[in-house]
Amino acid sequence: MERPIAWNRYRDEQLDELTAFADDYRAFISQNKTERECVTASIELARAAGYRDLDECIAAGTQLVPGDRVYASMRGKSLILVHLGKADLTCGVNILGAHIDSPRLDIKQNPVDEKNDLAYLDTHYYGGIKKYQWVTIPLAIHGVIVKKDGSVVKVVVGEDSADPVFVISDLLIHLASEQMTKDAAKVIEGELLDLLAGHQPLRVEGEDDMKDLVKRHMIALLNEEYGIDEEDLLSAELEVVPAGPARDLGFDRSMILGYGHDDRSCAYPSLRAQLALSETPARTALTILVDKEEIGSVGATGMQSRFFENVIAELLALTGHGDGTLALRRCLINSDMLSSDVSAGYDPSFASAFDPKNSAYLGRGLTFHKFTGRGGKGGSNDADAEYVARVRACMDAHDVAWQTAELGKVDQGGGGTIAYILANYGIRVIDSGVPVLSMHAPWEAISKADLYEAYRGYQAFLTLE
Fold first, then answer.
1. How many CA atoms within 13 Å lie on the side-chain side of 294?
2. 406 with 359: CB under 8 angstroms?
3. Fewer CB within 10 Å of terminal CB in the chain, N or C?
4. 6-102+259-462 and 104-242 share one CATH topology?
């Protein structure tokens, strides 16, 4: 069944709303390129919408009632937003879940090096990338440096037009005859992803030690700008990302080219859908923006941590259910979820990788994956038919443009999301998201129509009774 393109259904006022939403999204992903930045910005928006810090409610012993809105953050890298509904929590909640980490390069803990009068920062790539795509493009550095006294220094270099940028060099074509014979996976190897960061030596007079003057100059500049020394980089989290803002794509401005569509093109509509709830919902509405999905959802800020479960337990305690586990289990098993992660958009240039009847097409709306995983559905959540029907009915009742897909041909590859982790609780969950071209590349492309329909679809889901 071929789904119609969404653009043909919009009235003028809907096109205006779509354009405004896309502009807001484009600004958000341009300004927030790390999970820390996404959480900070999301909390600011949530507080403006009337959300309170759950930790403050716990400390004050505040009893929560329907209509209350709270948020909880884990280490500044993951976030949960909750709008308490009229129904008891044990009846279940409606959950939107997306991740806010994206493939990138992380600066190593002991990164500074000088080679032949050039200063470098060594990196370790994060998530699944094609390493050759990261060379010869302008790069920026975002992150934090934490000193031994606990003070935090925020770093953003390469985004302002007055800032310097950084780059990873590549071998010139005139000398690349051997390089051009290598497999794509080995054209640029991980240890070659060194960030070129300086060239001018430190000016010294009457000093015996004339070694590493370029490196020493770079460290001196960091000390002047941020008040740090080289050892402070041991406790830093610095992420290397493409420099510059997301841009409208195409003569008709119908698409967005930007870094981090995976998965912020799902996270941002989820956030906005949650904050748009003006009235008390029938069931509690909850949005999870989580870290570490690109490396297996591990660690304290990943979906496999107890963060989500602990927040639900705290909510139950503050709504009169005490600290027992039975209410928690009832809440979880009665809950519904959209695991919101991007889909591989059908690319006519690489048609052989796709099953045309089961692919996500740009402009045809929010995409649902009954299952993900690899090959024989390994590592997959497989939504049951009853739940798929429930979601279909919800989307159609709210006139949301939607489609179904698989992630390429069966034996071509595949991928996973956070869905299977939530399904372990017995939560009914299906994958949904925005189709993306060039997924996991430094610059990815999406359709504004799909972004808008994701927002509309997530709004509809949160109102399910």
1. 23
2. yes
3. N
4. no
Of the CA atoms within 13 Å of residue 119, those in its CB half-sphere come to: 20
Q: State the Cα–Cα distance between residues 78 and 34, nearest whole angstrom.
A: 11
The torsion of the CA quartet 287, 290, 296, 300, rounded to 10 degrees, works out to -120
Q: Which two tokens stand for residue 454?
A: 């994701």
CA distances from 24 to 45, 247, 329 (A): 12, 12, 38
Whether 75 and 300 have beta carbons less than 8 Å apart is answered as: yes
Q: Give me the pLDDT at residue 322, please.
A: 82
Return the CATH fold of 104-242: Aminopeptidase i, Domain 2 (2.30.250)
Do β-strands 428-433 and 336-340 pair in parallel, antiparallel, or remain unpaired? Answer: parallel
DSSP string, 198-223: E-PPPP-SS-S--TTHHHHHHHHHHH
Q: Which fold has domain 6-102+259-462?
A: Aminopeptidase (3.40.630)
From residue 311, alpha-carbon distances to 13, 67, 257, 291 in Å are: 39, 17, 35, 16
338-348: average pLDDT: 94
Segment (H or E) for 374? strand 373-374
287 vs 87: CA distance, rounded Å: 17
Task: Encode pLDDT of 18-32 as tens digits.
Answer: 999 999 999 999 999
pLDDT over 90 at 186, yes or no:
yes
2 Cβ contact partners less than 8 Å away, ≥ 6 residues apart: none
Domain ranges of the chain: 6-102+259-462, 104-242
Instruction: Give 386's contacts (C-beta < 8 A, 6+ positions apart).
Output: none
User: Within 13 A of 116's CA, how many CA atoms are on the CB side?
Assistant: 1
How far apart (Å, rounded) are the C-alpha atoms in residues 153 and 228? 9
